[in-house]
Design goal:
With 203 residues, this protein is mainly α. The chain has 10 helices and 3 strands.
Length: 203
């Protein structure tokens, strides 16, 4: 069952009560504010298991993360989901690159949904660019199983908006050094940060 702010606060409060040490309790309180912010923006579902996963993720060494203000939280949740449908650890890295490519293509085309034909075209383009051989149907099946994509009556889309924004941002981060035009695009996004979509990519 999905929970709102009240239930999220209740879960975080119970965690604070269960841990020892003022510093650790303060850390949980900081995480609680981040989680509430993400729920308020409708970027994350508020299921208890997700809230607990986010608390655990935000308790890790964030100083070593360069994924953005909330990126390390998203990353922990996504890695868990992708790990459940990946037979090898290296498969997770490939999926991150693959999904980032799909997300950026959608972003560039100003689209939030795509057909099976569109997906097939993007799949072929990805395989050519990265010199990869991937089973299109298997990849799609796994990404739907991992709740990254959803098949909504024959129309595909990212199941949660946070997934889309995270992977667009990841594409910029991983490719900006090799694609100069991405820097110009990112500067344009920063200039239009008042737009909800652009702001969610930046954070």
């Amino acid at each position: 069952k999905q929970n709102g702010h009240t239930s999220a606060n209740r879960i975080c409060r119970r965690v604070r009560q269960a841990v020892d040490g003022a510093e650790l309790r303060r850390s949980v309180a900081v995480s609680e504010r981040k989680i509430n912010a993400l729920i308020h923006l409708n970027l994350l579902p508020s299921y208890p298991v997700i809230i607990l996963t986010l608390l655990q993720a935000d308790d890790t060494d964030v100083a070593n993360s360069n994924a953005g203000s909330y990126g390390h939280i998203y990353e922990a949740l996504l890695t868990k989901k992708l790990g459940e449908v990946s037979s090898k650890a290296t498969d997770i890295g490939t999926k991150y690159t693959y999904i980032s490519y799909i997300a950026y293509r959608l972003f560039s085309d100003d689209k939030t949904t795509f057909s099976f034909y569109d997906f097939g075209q993007m799949h072929v383009s990805y395989c050519k660019r990265f010199d990869s051989i991937l089973d299109r149907d298997a990849v799609l099946r796994e990404l739907i199983q991992a709740h990254i994509f959803v098949n909504d009556g024959g129309v595909l889309r990212f199941k949660y908006s946070y997934c889309f924004y995270y992977f667009v941002a990841r594409y910029f981060k991983e490719n900006i050094a090799d694609e100069p035009r991405l820097r110009e695009e990112l500067e344009a996004i920063a200039d239009r940060v008042s737009s909800e979509e652009y702001a969610n990519i930046i954070i």
